[in-house]
Amino acid sequence: MAELSRLPGPVADLWEWQLDGSCRQLNPEVFFHPEGERGPARRSRDSQAKEVCLACPVLKQCREHALRVREPYGVWGAMTEDEREAHYAGHAVPTAS
Prior knowledge:
mainly alpha, protein-disulfide reductase [NAD(P)H] activity, 4 iron, 4 sulfur cluster binding, 4FE4S_WBL, DNA binding
């Protein structure tokens, strides 16, 4: 007989946290940069996205997901693409609790 405690939970259990994300109330363009966006415009948009994340009830789950699956685009869990890349490379990255 299978050891039930080792089986994965229902899919809803793995993703249900996303239903509580503050980002669900906003246009995805806040979290994902348009092609060619650079400099002050990108930093400003990233800052706006991170402000939403920092007040989000599922910040921790979102960040853990993004790091685990190596989300390549957008702001996830108050981390930008560049911040996640620095994390993977072992460089210090400012974190939100």
